[in-house]
Give the backbone structure.
Amino acid sequence: MSHHSVRVSTIIDEATRRLAHRIRVEREARGWSQGELAERSEVSKAMIGKIERGEASPTAALLGKLSGALQLTLAALLTRAEAEGGRKTAAADQPVWRDPGTGYLRRQVFARGDHPVELVEVELPAGARVDLPAASYAFIRQVVWVLSGTLAIEEGGRRTELAAGDAYAFGEPAQSSFINPAPEPCAYLVAVSRR
């Protein structure tokens, strides 16, 4: 195992711990019980308990439901609250998170509480599919730009295939799926603007 892959694993573990803490803090700040968050997000109370205790690593789809219920972007859950600092976001300070369900690897290139734009780089393994609920798009607009490979997007029942260099603008909030139909990984950049 290379030094780089050890470092990425450590960063991913740290991101999972940070998520557990942040979800609990955000839930408590709203005065919600785990049961209330479960009802609003359609995620079971038992699973929310496991995530908050760091016993379960949430999938991207599950995080989409939780972030939608909390009305926060995924970036807001993954990014250190104190990471405001200067204008530069060094590569080493960009949170990396891997979806345990699909192997989807997400690098939060840029996100700040005082800025309406977020940038996310994603690597989607060959054959992988990530489904995100409409709720996770309720308060954002986003554009995807494919860097390499092939990406299929299903949005509100419509499928669009994208090749390297193609861009796609999402419409009104709808259940969306990111699919890599090819035998090699796909990389893409997501630009998010909070409404």
